[in-house]
Amino acid sequence: MRSLYISLTSEFYKSRKSLAFWAAIVLPLLICGLIAFGYFNASERILKAKLPPMALWGQYSSQALAVMGMLILPFYVIFMAFSVNNIEHKNDTWKTLFSLPLHKLSVYSAKLVYAMLLVFICLGLFLILTFAFGHLLHLLIPAYRFDLYDPLMLLSQYYLKLFLASMGILSFQFVLSLIWGDFLKPMGIGFVGTIAGIICANVHWKYAYLIPFSHPTLAMRLGSMRKSPDEGIDIMTREIWVSLAYMAVFFIAGYFVLSKRNIK
Amino acid sequence: MNLAIETRGLNHYFGQQHVVNDLSLQVPPGSIYGFLGPNGAGKTTTIKILLNLLQVPRDKVFIFGKDLTTHRIESLARLGSLVEQPAIYSHLTGRENMYNRCLLLGIRRERAEDMLQLVGLSDAARKKAGKYSLGMKQRLGIGLALLSDPELLLLDEPTNGLDPNGIIEIRNLLIKLATEHGKTILVSSHLLAEIERTATHVGIINKGRLLFQGTIGDLQQLSKPVVEIDTNPPSRALEILQEAGFAPQLTEQKLTIPYRSPEDHAEANRLLVAAGLAVYAIHPMRKDLEHLFLDITKNN
Questions:
Q1: With 80 as the cut, is the pLDDT of residue B262 above it?
Q2: What is the ipTM of this complex?
Q3: Residues of chain A contacting residue B89, judged by C-beta atoms under 8 Å apart
């Protein structure tokens, strides 16, 4: 555990000045900021619809959720998986990492856990900023009445589900980025996979739940809503279990590849 | 007494290529072991094997008497290394690279400052390592290797890219580490002269095979120096020196006699001048690596 902890601390230390780390903060800030700005600017038109507070929260928060779940999240996850490994490929530092008195499994796990943490931080910030900007909008334009409904539980469940749905892609892309040091192969496969995954999910292909790249889109379907919004959504749906199963399989496969591999 | 490094009949392949061939290294503790060989001889591959970066079977590599494959962490904790180009994070400063390694090794940060000072990078510590010159990167790599105060140092061509002053500093540092701090150092190089100045023991490798292993004294026995005489005409000089029993050799208009003592080549000079020959220069020469390889190969 100590090896894992110090490897994780080192991952943070060496990537804190990198694009990968700042993307986790800047991306939600930018998207949520733009959506809030749009709601501030177009308030008259939006208020004309006279939506009840719950529906207004639903409309407002789904802007970020839809963009993130459908398109940005898979690409963001692919980029994260690439970045945590690329820092070693680019600087030729795998040989240093594996010649230190640390367990290979700890070094490897720390990288995957760090990538997961970055995705978690990013989605957590989406949740916090969606909520905070909603209340800020209400302060600036009191007619919005964002104070009359509390969406926090429902939003938390959706973002948690998105996070779990991204684990299959993350672990798959992580193994690809571990094997290949170049940008094109993992990103190319990820790009094609994402497009294929979205199409398969949108055409309701019955086996789409088996494709990791379809999971975020499937996770965002309203079908997983329970009887009423107050009861929240079903988080552990079929695609989430498959996503977690992929993570376990790719985690073991990645470590097997790494432990048998010569560091040239 | 356990050897610091021991390999027993070590072999390694890259695909079909046999890059390390039946290698049996024996590095005594406290020695500076010069690992000598031309580019592509298998030096870096061997060092990577010693760091467990390349897969090897059991009972082939021993660090301080313990099998590396079964005592990996324990062995690596006693090692510091610099392999090929220094592996440093180019987006971090020199100091941050040191701090990151301190984190990984569980060492206090003060030690990083000491190492930066030791390798002469205190003033450049705030500069991004990517903007360092090759020599500065090499110094930082050596500093990183020394950070954990390891008992055994594996340095792969550590003077690469250094200026003459830097080379002398590193050479003196290696000698100091071995003599004053009892460190064992394996240093690879393709320069015989470089190894001769620092090493106590030498291993010569070519095409993956260990051609020679012994003390520096043993090597000097093999690397018999010669005295080159620049004279005109060399053919006449050859006759004169042959008559006087100097065992001269003339190859490609270069006249050489075996080095015995300064008095000996002063005598050769006197004979040539007395015979009316112009002597432009007389200087002792060590055999270069290529010729030494030829000699060693012949002897084997």
A1: yes
A2: 0.87
A3: 14, 87, 91, 93
